[in-house]
Amino acid sequence: MTRDYGQEIDQLREELREIKEMLRPKEEDPRTLIQKIPDMHPDPHIQQILSQLEDTCEEKNQNGAITYLGVYASGGRQSTWIRHQVNADDLLKLIENRMAEKVLTSIGNNDRLNMLLQILRKPMTVAQLVEEGDYNSTGQVYHHLKPLIAADLIVEDPNSETRGTYIVQPHRVQGIIMLLAGISDMLDPSFTKGEWHE
Asked: Under CATH, what is the fold of the domain 98-190?
């Protein structure tokens, strides 16, 4: 008896296609994902923005969208930002492509976070960081500055008369503040209960 390899290959292809079809996530009708919630906020301007976000999700078949704005002034500098109708699906991709992990790793150390906080409050030199941050040496400060500089969060201030004065990149201030706002939301026990301990 001779085998028909071509037929066997075709049969395997068909079975593989069926398996892929079974594993493919079922697409939901996006219009059922976002529900209109009237009177969510007492301020009609904010309610209008929410309504626009709901409409945008429906029109663009998105699972979610956010709008945020803010202002932060410190150390003689101000950062003001508005981001409107940011696609939440694109934000989730930051986990899939591991960029969220890279960013969080670059700041995920208490010394780096404290250093970021000090420099966010006012421009600082390495000597000031050693003195005011209770670090043991300039080497220790440079060790923690290095990943913050590599992540483009901290930069030497080009406008400072004192060489080696570091500032938070102006276009990164909003990201830092919004990251902290997200952490604050995660810690808020108003709607959920949990423990942030291993």
From this structure: Arc Repressor Mutant, subunit A (1.10.10)
